[in-house]
Amino acid sequence: MKKLIISIILFSHSVSAQYTDINIVKEVKVKNKGVVVSAHPLASEAGAKILKMGGNAYDAITATQYALAVVYPQAGNIGGGGFLVGAKSNGEKFTIDYRETAPKKASRDMYLDKNGKANTDLSQNGRLAVGIPGSIAGFFATLKYCKLPMNQIIQPAIDLAEKGFAITDKEADMLNSQREHFQKHNKSTILFVKDTPWKAGDLLIQKELAETLKLIQKLGAKGFYEGKTADLLIAEMKKGNGIITLEDLKNYKVAERKALEFDYKGSNVVTMPLPSSGGVLLAQMLRMAAFENLEKYQQNSTPVVQIMVEAERRAYADRAEYMGDPDFIEDKTSYLISDEYLKNRWKSFSFNKATPSSEVGKIIKQPKESTETTHISVIDKDGNAAAAVTTTLNGYYGSKVLVTGAGFFLNNEMDDFSVKPGVPNMFGAVGGEANSIQPNKRMLSSMTPTIILKNGKPYMVVGTPGGTTIPTSVYQSIVDVVDFKLNANISVNAPKFHHQWLPETVSVENNFPEATISELKAKNYVIEKVKYIGKTEMILIDDTATIHAVADGRGDDSVAVE
């Protein structure tokens, strides 16, 4: 077994039950053991603990999500939503859509002022930005695939919240950076705001969140969507301009959808359908890039980046025009990923120069903001069950509103609708009528949890956070492994790039090859350097049943073994 470990002894405390030692494990190679890869070592360990208790991949991934709600509050959540993609040993593939929905009082023009101008501050911050949370309903929908009862699955998260844990440098920096936002959008002092700045080793104890989790443990989903927690959430709505009602909470339903499946060079890709744009984009981008035989080039070389960027450009233009909640629009996925359509889309590609985005859609000025989501990849010891989950509050700490008395942050997912057709959201994504706001509708997402099967068995489990960069990062991960035959570590940690039709720029990480950048600029590509793109969590299973799990080096992401 190969294991690379970074051990950080953050805090020495007299109460041994508190979680004060953080062991960040970036890579493992194992056989006959289950593994969990997530954004936080304590969350991965919570999932691994459940595997050791006899749970399967679905038990573990649910426990990890609960734990992330405690130890990774900027994205892990019970106040948001997500998508799960599963593949079982009997050949069954399924997805669970617990994306947030628009409240009953939501309306198409709810974020427009009297002059018809979009007020994106209202869709991104505060109580009016909140969609009906789906996470808890999603966890209970997953339960039918689990082996253990929910009261066991949730317990590690309760322990983490009640006993407390030492935060890392990155977590301290994140909390400090959001101090003013927390103060602006909360009517009372919250535990995430201190008199002095947060620092590594500080203990974060969340008693209110622990009590909320105990209500769920005792009462099931009703412990969140009804009763005390629901009352506290609605009371929080009434402190501002929030529109979620008790009826909205009680009526929330998950959607169990047929997985989107397609072939890529002999492998079966299983991913999320609409309202995730991610799966459709992934199919479009991989199939268009395949027209140019990527495998004959080198990773991140100029022709490879050009081919992949141009596939991204065309796919994201389609995202803006065609994609939304399939319960509200005509689902054109089959057409959009068909060879006939994509070959026609690809006709304008040229190695000589960049295709102007104006040739594939109407140019609109874009803002540029950050994103925070989180992904978990899990496989159990026999490789019999694989699960990929991407979950989010949307922006960092969502709406920045903490439910007083319940201890959890609420999402700002309403911004993922087209606030006004043609007006970009916080990630610069443009949408049209297909993604306009309607009551009970799910907002379009970029989350792309993905499983790849070879000969019917799990080969890759992959996903990442990153807003609109999610599909392109998963796309690159698959190309790196399938086309370039790179291992999981190189694929996850290699410098990434991203393009989304609008804006015209191609984002590249700071350590991206300078020669490629220069050659792309000579072909009229506009290049922008960024600190990092995504945090990919990947599991690969080879022909000998060796499991190779890698957590992204860009964050505190970590692998845990059963």
UniProtKB/TrEMBL annotation:
UniProt family annotation: Belongs to the gamma-glutamyltransferase family.
GO MF entry, a single one: leukotriene C4 gamma-glutamyl transferase activity
Swiss-Prot/TrEMBL catalytic activity: an S-substituted glutathione + H2O = an S-substituted L-cysteinylglycine + L-glutamate; an N-terminal (5-L-glutamyl)-[peptide] + an alpha-amino acid = 5-L-glutamyl amino acid + an N-terminal L-alpha-aminoacyl-[peptide]; glutathione + H2O = L-cysteinylglycine + L-glutamate
GO biological process, one term: glutathione biosynthetic process
Catalytic residue positions: 373 (nucleophile)
Coiled-coil stretches: none
Species of origin: Chryseobacterium glaciei
PTM entry text: Cleaved by autocatalysis into a large and a small subunit.
Protein name: Glutathione hydrolase proenzyme
Alphabetized InterPro entries for the sequence: GGT_bact (IPR051792), GGT_lsub (IPR043138), GGT_peptidase (IPR000101), GGT_ssub_C (IPR043137), Ntn_hydrolases_N (IPR029055)
EC number of this enzyme: 2.3.2.2, 3.4.19.13
Pathway the protein takes part in: Sulfur metabolism; glutathione metabolism
Self-association and partners: This enzyme consists of two polypeptide chains, which are synthesized in precursor form from a single polypeptide.
